[in-house]
């Protein structure tokens, strides 16, 4: 089925004026906040609305604190996907995922997030200490000294996070070889279902907590995230994402309703083959943007409730690309090989985090044995984490 390319919102003013000439730090900071286990459980923490009811201007004000802008948005009945000037934001009824690159200050949004969920969702707590789950992660920075002070080192980030979430419940990891690219992870939260009596929404009848058996069955959904973080991209493969290679491709463009970045982004994702990485697995809706003078970002919604996001910084000397999805059904081995074949990185790490399924994890088992033609696996690390998650980290380098 051909992917849909219908936008729900485009900020033409930001899209037309955006210039990434001074962009340098590709690796993203990834913040994932769960207020409940699923949409069916939001009544336990929200007395009105859900995260998707937060107005667009308020989301923009939150992102202003982080130092990024919304370029466009696509939606489904289950979620909203915002393409940002620096990466992506995904909003579900019960959780939000903010992924930002460059010198953005991702963690500066936490106070504003709390303010918004209290005002627009009726969050039943006055702080974030009772949060269901929170994950914060990032790859090692290329230029850490250029980051905002709270992101300049891992200790600073941990100190900031522990202002909002209980330090005694936190888990923090540095994964991988510290002499090479490595990865940081922070987890916190109580991770339990139905933390408070069911809160009636305005105009509804009073409800009561379900029994533990019914509650867990209704709310739990096995969660997973698959990430690829790539550096030293092949220069020939990276040419596709240089604006100088795509001049005057849309002479009939209507500047009142269209912008070159979004039109070229859609062409890039198709011509590069990146739109087919998950082809055949799901119904897909794409949003893509090509930056000036180079660079590329895309969000995709799959089967209404899963996302895929790609970000590419092709500049020689600090080239970087990331791929991330929470789609559960695709073969992660096939996806990994497809992305590598398109971008041809010199080095890359794979991070797969998955909630345990009956103490078995077939995706991890298959990934642990993956062979990538032309690459050697340097590291493989497996962790059992908080909330019954497992983590697989692998690091690859191109064979000489």
From TrEMBL:
Q: In which pathway does it act?
A: Amine and polyamine biosynthesis; S-adenosylmethioninamine biosynthesis; S-adenosylmethioninamine from S-adenosyl-L-methionine: step 1/1
Task: Please indicate which residues carry the site annotation Cleavage (non-hydrolytic).
Answer: 86-87
What does the record give as the reaction this protein catalyses? S-adenosyl-L-methionine + H(+) = S-adenosyl 3-(methylsulfanyl)propylamine + CO2
Question: Which key words are in the record?
Answer: Autocatalytic cleavage, Decarboxylase, Lyase, Polyamine biosynthesis, Pyruvate, S-adenosyl-L-methionine, Schiff base, Spermidine biosynthesis, Zymogen
GO terms of biological process kind: spermidine biosynthetic process; spermine biosynthetic process
Q: Which domain of life is it from?
A: Eukaryota
Gene Ontology molecular function: any one? adenosylmethionine decarboxylase activity
Q: Which residues are recorded as binding substrate? A: 24, 86, 291, 315
Q: EC number(s) per UniProt?
A: 4.1.1.50
Q: What is one GO cellular-component annotation here?
A: cytosol
Modified positions (Pyruvic acid (Ser)) in chain numbering: 87
> Gene3D superfamilies this protein is in?
S-adenosylmethionine decarboxylase
At the top of the EC hierarchy, this enzyme's class is lyase
State whether keyword Cell cycle applies: no
Q: How is the cofactor bound?
A: Binds 1 pyruvoyl group covalently per subunit.
Known cofactor(s): pyruvate
The active site of this protein is located at 87 (schiff-base intermediate with substrate), 101 (proton donor), 297 (proton acceptor), 311 (proton acceptor)
Q: Which residues form a coiled coil?
A: none
For this chain, the family text in UniProt reads: Belongs to the eukaryotic AdoMetDC family.
Q: Which NCBIfam families match?
A: SAM_DCase
- Report what the protein is called: S-adenosylmethionine decarboxylase proenzyme
In which organism is this protein found?
Ogataea philodendri
């Amino acid at each position: 089925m051909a992917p849909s390319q219908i936008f729900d919102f485009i900020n033409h003013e930001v899209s037309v004026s955006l210039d990434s000439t001074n962009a340098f730090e590709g690796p993203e900071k990834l913040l994932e906040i769960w207020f409940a286990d699923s949409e069916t459980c939001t009544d336990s923490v929200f007395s009105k609305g859900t995260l998707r009811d937060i107005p667009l201007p308020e989301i923009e004000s939150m992102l202003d604190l982080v130092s990024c802008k919304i370029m466009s948005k696509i939606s489904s009945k289950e979620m909203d996907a915002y393409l940002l000037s620096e990466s992506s934001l995904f909003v579900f009824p019960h959780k939000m995922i903010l992924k930002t690159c460059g010198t953005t200050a991702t963690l500066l949004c936490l106070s504003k997030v709390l303010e918004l969920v209290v005002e627009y969702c009726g969050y039943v707590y006055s702080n974030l200490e009772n949060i269901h789950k929170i994950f914060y992660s990032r790859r090692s920075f290329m230029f850490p000294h250029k980051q905002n002070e709270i992101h300049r080192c891992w200790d600073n980030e941990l100190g900031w996070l522990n202002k909002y979430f209980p330090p005694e419940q936190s888990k923090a990891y540095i994964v991988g070889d510290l002499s090479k690219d490595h990865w940081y992870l922070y987890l916190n939260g109580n991770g339990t279902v139905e933390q408070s009596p069911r809160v009636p929404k305005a105009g509804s009848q009073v409800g009561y907590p379900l029994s533990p058996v019914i509650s867990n069955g209704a709310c739990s959904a096995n969660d997973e995230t698959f990430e690829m973080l790539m550096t030293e991209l092949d220069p020939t493969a990276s040419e596709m994402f240089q604006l100088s290679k795509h001049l005057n491709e849309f002479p009939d463009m209507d500047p009142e309703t269209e912008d070159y970045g979004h039109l070229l982004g859609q062409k890039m994702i198709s011509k590069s083959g990146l739109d087919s990485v998950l082809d055949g697995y799901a119904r897909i809706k794409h949003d893509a943007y090509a930056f000036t003078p180079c660079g590329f970002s895309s969000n995709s919604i799959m089967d209404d409730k899963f996302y895929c996001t790609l970000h590419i910084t092709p500049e020689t000397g600090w080239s970087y690309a990331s791929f991330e999805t929470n789609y559960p059904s695709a073969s992660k081995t096939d996806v990994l090989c497809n992305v590598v074949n398109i971008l041809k990185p010199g080095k890359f790490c794979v991070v797969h985090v998955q909630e345990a399924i009956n103490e078995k994890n077939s995706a991890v088992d298959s990934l642990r044995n993956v062979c990538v033609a032309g690459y050697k696996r340097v590291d493989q690390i497996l962790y059992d984490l908080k909330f019954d998650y497992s983590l697989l980290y692998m690091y690859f380098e191109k064979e000489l």
